[in-house]
């Protein structure tokens, strides 16, 4: 027996097997649409596809594919994605007044739970070692 959510979502998404291989072992009993003529419209949340998929943005792939509720910028060049992931971070050594080391890191989205402010009133944006 289908619950309310399953009934509401019945045949609102395309069948992955139907799209990829042109057939589906469930036939007419499949809960997914086999072609646009079977596809039903569903009322989406106002937040649907309003935020970027972090997984797709960082790795270039997402397990949910077209069913992901987040934005996939599939037109972005994969080279640009890789360049964004391999950004050097320069540490500055104040004693010698020169860069002291490079560290490669993957930039993560800013999270407001973490504060980057310190008690010192330094206006420098680089991480310093004394």
TrEMBL record:
Gene Ontology molecular function: any one: zinc ion binding
PROSITE patterns in alphabetical order: ZF_C3H1
Domain of life: Eukaryota
Signal peptide: none
Keywords carried by this UniProt record: Metal-binding, Repeat, Zinc, Zinc-finger
InterPro entries per the UniProt record, alphabetical: ZFP36-like, Znf_CCCH, Znf_CCCH_sf
SMART domains named among the record's database cross-references: ZnF_C3H1
Pfam families in the record: zf-CCCH (PF00642)
Limits of the C3H1-type domain: 9-37, 47-75
Zinc fingers (C3H1-type), renumbered ranges: 9-37, 47-75
PANTHER family hit by this protein: CCCH ZINC FINGER/TIS11-RELATED, PROTEIN TIS11
The protein's name: C3H1-type domain-containing protein
């Amino acid at each position: 027996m289908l619950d309310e959510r399953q009934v509401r979502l019945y045949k609102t998404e395309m069948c992955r097997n139907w799209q990829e291989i042109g057939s589906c072992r469930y036939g007419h009993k499949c809960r997914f649409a086999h072609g646009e003529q079977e596809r039903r419209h569903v009322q989406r949340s106002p937040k649907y596809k309003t935020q970027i998929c972090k997984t797709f943005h960082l790795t270039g792939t997402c397990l949910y594919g077209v069913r992901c509720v987040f934005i996939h910028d599939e037109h972005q060049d994969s080279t640009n994605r890789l360049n964004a992931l391999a950004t050097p971070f320069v540490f500055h050594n104040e004693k010698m007044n020169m860069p002291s080391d490079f560290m490669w890191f993957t930039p993560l989205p800013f999270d407001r739970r973490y504060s980057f402010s310190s008690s010192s009133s330094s206006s420098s944006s680089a991480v310093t070692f004394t």
